[in-house]
Design goal:
eleven-stranded mixed sheet, binds adenosine-5'-triphosphate
């Protein structure tokens, strides 16, 4: 369970407020206009930015002051963040141990992650020898091997074409279900939210709305969402 308790985030005159709880195992989409603060919210949850006030709690424990590496969180960045000079295996291995000295069990786990994302045959390649979709799979595998219960996705797969993006979103949805993880995903696209997020929050006008069931929200959108959708 993730709790954002009276969170106030201030950046150079920009302010964002959030105050809600997300149950464990939920997939939450954060949707809203450009510049509304979606990435900023993820960065605060991940610990890359500090809120001005309020707390971030995981399973009731205050993690507001923990450094990013000590949080129960892994984050998939928009640009995949792969190291071009390292192989697929090494890029994923970094998610397990930064010095890449993996023991047998860790190597087996890494191999399993490679298979799950369909890259078992490409372990020795460098990112430059992969397609955009394959690179996204490597980044996703690196998130998986971290085995963190809370996964943050910042506009994942936005560089991919629609069909490939949908495949990747489905894969993420399936994998999250398998590990029973909780996910927050930033997206501009209502279809992305409808595809894998059981609940959705709208980020607009300085506020993150509390998560609402996605289908019901889009069937009967509040004004803030209608404004964003232009309907
Ligand atoms: N490091 C920073 N310092 C100061 N202001 C920032 C910083 N990062 C972002 N901002 C500002 O904070 C606001 C929210 O930005 P953010 O990137 O979180 O929006 P977003 O909803 O993710 O947008 P997009 O959908 O375009 O990615 C914007 O006004 C942005 O200019």
């Amino acid at each position: 369970m993730l709790t954002l308790e009276k969170l106030e985030i201030v950046l150079d005159g920009f302010t964002l407020n959030a105050d809600f709880t997300l149950e464990q195992g939920r997939n939450l989409a954060l949707i809203g206009p450009s510049g509304a603060g979606k990435s900023t919210l993820l960065n605060v949850i991940a610990g890359f930015l500090r809120p001005r006030s309020g707390r971030v709690l995981w399973q009731g424990e205050d993690i507001t002051d923990l450094p990013p590496g000590q949080r129960p969180i892994s984050m998939l960045f928009q640009d995949n963040n792969l190291f071009p000079h390292l192989t697929v295996t090494q890029n994923i291995g970094l998610g397990i141990r930064p010095d890449l000295r993996l023991n047998a069990a860790e190597r087996a786990y890494l191999h399993d992650a490679l298979e799950r994302v369909g890259l078992a045959g490409m372990a020795g390649r460098k990112p430059g020898q992969l397609s955009g979709g394959q690179q996204s799979r490597v980044a996703l595998a690196r998130v998986l091997v971290q085995r963190k219960p809370l996964v943050l996705l910042d506009e994942p797969f936005s560089a991919l074409g629609p069909a490939l993006k949908h495949d990747m979103l489905r894969l993420v949805g399936d994998l999250m279900q398998e590990i029973g993880g909780t996910m927050l995903m930033v997206s501009h696209e209502p279809e992305d939210a409808q595809m894998i997020a059981d609940v959705t929050s709208v980020v607009a006008q300085g506020t993150v709305t509390a998560p609402k069931p996605t289908a019901a929200l889009f069937e009967n959108p509040p004004k803030v969402l209608r404004d964003y959708l232009g309907t």
